[in-house]
């Protein structure tokens, strides 16, 4: 009896880990708004809010200023959004520093 729910839960976890941030957003798993200052946002949060994919309480000007300060680009944001969660976790385990935006 317990094996079936455990197998379903394990399968669901594998599906979520085997997807990217962009795919998770399409499935509705990442739809909350970002309610922090642009200076305190992660690069992925800044990319999503600046490109209009996520709601925020910050002004467009503050997002644009932080975008320019960090030298982010559409190519960098696209690459980060399409990276699988399992890849991010593996890089974190290996203490590999994320590539800087160019």
Description:
This protein is mainly alpha-helical and 102 residues long. The protein has a domain at 33-95. The chain is built from six helices and no strands. The protein has helices at residues 3-17, 21-26, 43-50, 60-69, 74-81, 85-93. The longest helix is centred in the N-terminal third of the chain and has 15 residues, at 3-17. It is extended and about 50 Å long. The chain starts with a helix and ends in a 9-residue tail after the last helix. The mean pLDDT is 76. Keywords: Signal. Residues 1-24 form the signal peptide.
Largest sheet: none
In DSSP terms (H or I, runs of 4 or more residues), the helix count works out at 6
H/E element string? HHHHHH
Distance between the termini: 53 Å
Number of strands: 0
**Share of helix, binned:** 40-55%
- Uncertain segments are none
Category by helix and strand content: mainly alpha
Name the overall outline: extended
Radius of gyration: 16 Å
Mean pLDDT: 76
Strand-residue fraction?
A: under 5%
Please identify the oligomeric state. single chain
């Amino acid at each position: 009896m317990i094996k079936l729910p455990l197998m379903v839960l394990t399968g669901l976890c594998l599906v979520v880990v085997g997807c990217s941030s962009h795919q998770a957003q399409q499935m509705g798993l990442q739809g909350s708004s970002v309610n922090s200052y642009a200076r305190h946002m992660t690069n992925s949060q800044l990319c999503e809010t600046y490109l209009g994919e996520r709601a925020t309480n910050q002004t467009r000007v503050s997002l644009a200023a932080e975008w320019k300060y960090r030298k982010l680009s559409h190519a960098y944001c696209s690459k980060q959004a399409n990276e699988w969660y399992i890849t991010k976790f593996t890089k974190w385990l290996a203490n590999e520093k994320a590539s800087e935006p160019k």
